[in-house]
Amino acid sequence: MPKRSVTAEPNQHSIIATCIFDAPRELVFKLMTDPEMIPQWYAPKNLTTTVDKMEPWSGGSWRFVVRSQNGGEWAFHGVYHSIDAPITNVSTYEYEGLPGKVSLETNLYEDHEGGTKLTTISVFQSIEDRDNMMQSDMQEGGNESMNLLEELLATMTVRS
User: Which residues contact residue 83 at a Cβ distance below 8 angstroms, ignoring those fewer than 6 apart?
Assistant: First the structure.
């Protein structure tokens, strides 16, 4: 399992999540920006992710739909502001169930001890929005998604 931490400092609008992967940053970046790979790791195993749209370039947009076996459905979308492969990508993130609650997501990919350190900085419009995200099951889902990404990376680095 990758080493993951999530920090939300009091009175700040941001959440900072870091995750260490035992894989090259070019590969981590590819799996985070490849619409064919997203369904394999984006949501916990008991859910299915469909990439409705993914245009991973500056000005492009994205939309993912996550479904449960009992018919639940959650959709998320955003716009890519910048992409500098394999160093960073910046996009907005909005859960369609709470329209108008948009965060700005910056992913930084750094070489780290033969692997990759992924730092995600999520900036919310208000501290209340940030706190609500922290109180959701975001951390559990994020941990499981990062575990799935690590498993997928391991199969790909073995093949390389």
Answer: 33, 56, 57, 58, 89, 90
CA dist 2 and 113 (Å) reads 13
pTM of the model: 0.92
Chunk the chain into consecutive blocks of 10 residues (it has 160) and report each block's average pLDDT, rounded to whole numbers.
84 96 96 96 94 97 97 96 97 95 97 96 96 83 91 78
* Residue ranges of domains in the chain, CATH in brackets: 3-159 (3.30.530.20)
CB 22 within 8 A of CB 154: yes
Q: At what angle do helices 138-159 and 127-135 cross, to 10 degrees?
A: 70
Gyration radius (Cα) of the chain, Å: 15
